[in-house]
Design a protein that fits this description.
Elements lengths: L1 E2 L7 E6 L7 H14 L3 E5 L2 H7 L2 E4 L26 H13 L4 E6 L1 H14 L3 E5 L15 H22 L2 E6 L6 H9 L4 E3 L7 H13 L5 E6 L6 H13 L3 E5 L11 H19 L2 E2 L1 E6 L2 E6 H6 L7 H10 L1
Parallel strand pairs: 2-3, 2-5, 5-6, 6-12, 7-9, 7-10, 8-9
Antiparallel strand pairs: 1-11, 3-4, 12-13
C-alpha cells in the first residue's frame, strides 16, 4: 500500500460512484461520523466524479447523515463519468478538490470507480481509500461488496414468489437477474432458491444438459421448474435461452426479468454492518498514512488490498455451486 504523511489532512471528501447499491448510505454515514469524531471536516461530493468536475461540494455534519442507514440508494447520488477518462479532466477535478481544501478521499464504488481513484493517487498524489460498493460482488480482494447481500435477497424473494405461480400453473420459468460480466447474484439466488439450473457469463453451458434436467424432473412427477440466468452482455438474454429450450425440447418457458428492482430497497442487516465497518476503517486508514487501497472483508475480518491489485485480478464465481444446484434439484 502507498504511504504518505497524514499530518496535513484536515478535510476528507466522500463520494459514491458507478451504480448505486443498498448500503452505500450506511458507508457514507460511517465515513462522516468517524471523520468528525477524529476532528476532521467532511465534504460530500455529489454524483461522484461528475461532481468533482462541476464543483458539487457540500459540507457534511452529524445531522446530515441522520436517519439514512436504512435507506437504499445514495444520498450523494451516484453515476458514471466518461469524461474522467481524459487526463485533462482529471487535472480539472484535482484543481477543484484542492480549491475546496479537500486533502483526501473515500471512494465508494466498483472497479470503474477504483480505476479513477487509483489514477488520482498515481497522477496527482491525492490520498484515496476505496470502499467496495456494488451489487455484483465482483471486486477482487474482498469476500463481500456492499449491496450484494441485499440484491441476492431481493432476487430470492422474487424467485420464491414466482415459484408459487410456476407450481400453480405447471410452468417452466426463467428468471433473469443482474450481472453483465458476473454471475455471483445468479449463483447465490439460484442455489438458495432451489433452481434446476443456473446460467452465468463466466461458465459455458450446454442446453441439452439443462433439457435433460427438466425432463428427469418431469419423469418423477415434477411439473414446474425454475431456471436462473445472469443477464450477460445485455438484458433479455433469458429470451434467447427460452427459445433454445423450446427448440430442443418443445417446452415453453416463461421469462421474468427482475432488472433494477435488485438495486433498490432497504439494505440488509449484513450490508449495513459491513458498510459501517468499511466506511469507518477507510477514514482511519487515511489518518494512519495508508492510501491507494481498498478496505475489504476476509471472513469476519477487514483486510486492505492495493487498488492496483483489485483492478489487475479477477474474482471468480465458485462454479461448484452450479453443480450443487443441479444435484439438489433432482
Amino acid at each position: 500500500m502507498a504511504k504518505y504523511n497524514p499530518e496535513n489532512i484536515k478535510t476528507i471528501g466522500v463520494y459514491a460512484s458507478g451504480g448505486d447499491a443498498p448500503g452505500m448510505n450506511a458507508a457514507i454515514r460511517a465515513v462522516v461520523r468517524t471523520a468528525i469524531l477524529r476532528k476532521l471536516r467532511v465534504v460530500g461530493i455529489t454524483q461522484g466524479y461528475t461532481g468533482m468536475l462541476e464543483k458539487q461540494f457540500a459540507d457534511m455534519d452529524l445531522r446530515s447523515v441522520a436517519n439514512i442507514i436504512q435507506r437504499g440508494g445514495s444520498i450523494l447520488k451516484a453515476g458514471r463519468c466518461p469524461e474522467f477518462i481524459k487526463t485533462e479532466n482529471r487535472k480539472i477535478a484535482v484543481d477543484n478538490l484542492r480549491s475546496e481544501g479537500i486533502d483526501a478521499l473515500v471512494c465508494i464504488g466498483g472497479d470503474g470507480s477504483f480505476t479513477a481513484a487509483n489514477l488520482l493517487w498515481q497522477e496527482h498524489k491525492i490520498p484515496v481509500v476505496g470502499v467496495p460498493g456494488t451489487i455484483d460482488n465482483d471486486i477482487f480482494g474482498t469476500d463481500h461488496t456492499i449491496g450484494f447481500d441485499t440484491a441476492v435477497n431481493t432476487a430470492l424473494d422474487a424467485i420464491d414468489r414466482i415459484r408459487d405461480t410456476a407450481a400453480s400453473h405447471d410452468r417452466l420459468f426463467i428468471i433473469e437477474v443482474m450481472g453483465r460480466d458476473s454471475g455471483f447474484i445468479a449463483v447465490a439466488s439460484g442455489l438458495a432458491g432451489g433452481a434446476e439450473d443456473i446460467f452465468i457469463p463466466e461458465h459455458p453451458f450446454q442446453i441439452d444438459k439443462t433439457v435433460d434436467l427438466i425432463k428427469r424432473g418431469m419423469a418423477r412427477g415434477k411439473n414446474s421448474s425454475i431456471l436462473v440466468a445472469a443477464e450477460g452482455v445485455k438484458p433479455g438474454r433469458a429470451y434467447d435461452l427460452a427459445e433454445s429450450i423450446r427448440k430442443n425440447s418443445g417446452h415453453l418457458a416463461t421469462v421474468c426479468i427482475l432488472g433494477h428492482i435488485q438495486r433498490g430497497g432497504r439494505p440488509s442487516a449484513f450490508d449495513r454492518l459491513i458498510a459501517s465497518r468499511m466506511g469507518s476503517n477507510a477514514v482511519d486508514q487515511l489518518l494512519s498514512g495508508n492510501c491507494d487501497i481498498m478496505v475489504g472483508t476476509k471472513g469476519d475480518n477487514l483486510v486492505h488490498v492495493e487498488l492496483s491489485e483489485c483492478l489487475k485480478q479477477k474474482k471468480h464465481v465458485n462454479k461448484d455451486l452450479i453443480q450443487l444446484a443441479q444435484i439438489l434439484s433432482n
